[in-house]
Specification:
Elements lengths: L3 E8 L8 E8 L3 E7 L5 H8 L7 E6 L2 E2 L5 H7 E4 L11 H6 L3 H4 L7 H13 L15 H14 L4 E5 L7 H18 L2 E5 L3 H7 L2 E6 L2 E6 L1 H4 L2 H8 L2 E6 L6 E6 L7
Parallel strand pairs: 3-8, 3-9, 6-7, 7-8
Antiparallel strand pairs: 1-2, 1-4, 4-5, 9-10, 11-12
Helix pairs in contact: 5-6
Length: 265
């Protein structure tokens, strides 16, 4: 079972300012962690660090008891799948061809896919509801369809740790919630590690097993939804007052912004 841990991470794109400073985090199998924070808090940077794509100024990321930067690119790709926040789609390959690329971590770039690989591709297309579009050129997809295709490719990678940067970006309301529900089910059924960045606090409250709140270059708070999404912590992190109510169906917190001059309940 994959174990992913970050210890005392420090990173900056220049020598003037650290984006992340002495940040520690432990990701648990079977648990969906949602990473929250304001713009520029370092959420995307942290995912890229965990994936081994950025060189640290200090600290270390451990993957199965070994520094992540000591794994070969292929071995790391078999264990970690990073879904980027933005990726251009300029090639005219089909959706299915794009999703099949996720199997390169296991088959290499030249070996043909076997029946088992194709079943994995089929499953990923079905989970992301992209099966009807599998023969369509990726250049003709809407923004939401493109995001779902990229998620399908990440799932096809077969990694035991999913690092998903705003997977619901560009999706309509129905697909946002279905996407997060599918991710949570996969994480629990297959005992995967998953860390997802979001901006919607109510989606985080509904789907997260644990929330980590980034602020001031560190993990400002980490724990259960109720522990982290408090009025005080939200105000400190986002600079806005809120009222917190209970969801009428799921009993999760519902966060409602309160404009300056009005009174929070």
């Amino acid at each position: 079972m994959t174990v992913l841990r970050a210890e005392n991470l420090t990173f900056g794109f220049d020598t003037e300012r650290d984006v992340i400073r002495e940040l520690s985090l432990e990701l648990r199998p079977g648990e969906l962690m949602v990473l929250l924070g304001g713009n520029g808090a370092g959420k995307t940077t942290l995912l890229r660090i965990l994936a081994g794509h950025l060189r640290l100024g200090g600290g270390r990321v451990w993957l199965d008891g070994r520094p992540v930067d000591e794994w070969s690119t292929r071995d790391r790709a078999q264990r970690l799948a990073l879904m980027p926040q933005a990726e251009r789609c300029e090639s005219a390959i089909s959706v299915r061809e794009l999703v099949r690329l996720g199997r390169a971590a296991h088959r290499g770039w030249l070996m043909p896919l076997n029946e088992a690989d194709e079943r994995i591709v089929d499953e990923a297309l079905a989970v992301t509801q992209m099966t009807p579009f599998q023969e369509q050129a990726i250049t003709t997809l809407s923004g939401g369809q493109w995001r779902r295709a990229i998620l399908a490719r990440s799932l096809t990678q077969g990694a035991s740790a999913l690092l998903l940067d705003e997977p619901t970006s560009g999706l309509d309301l129905r697909h946002q919630y279905e996407c997060l529900d599918h991710i949570r089910r996969l994480v629990r059924e297959k005992q995967l590690i998953a860390i997802v960045t979001l901006h919607d606090l109510n989606q985080a409250a509904m789907f997260a097993d644990r929330i980590s709140l980034l602020a001031d270059q560190r993990v400002f708070a980490s724990g259960s939804v109720a522990e982290v999404l408090t009025r005080e912590r939200i105000k400190q992190t986002y600079g806005i007052d809120v009222s917190i109510m209970q969801h009428p169906v799921y009993a999760t917190p519902v966060i409602v912004p309160v404009l300056p001059g009005d009174v929070a309940c």
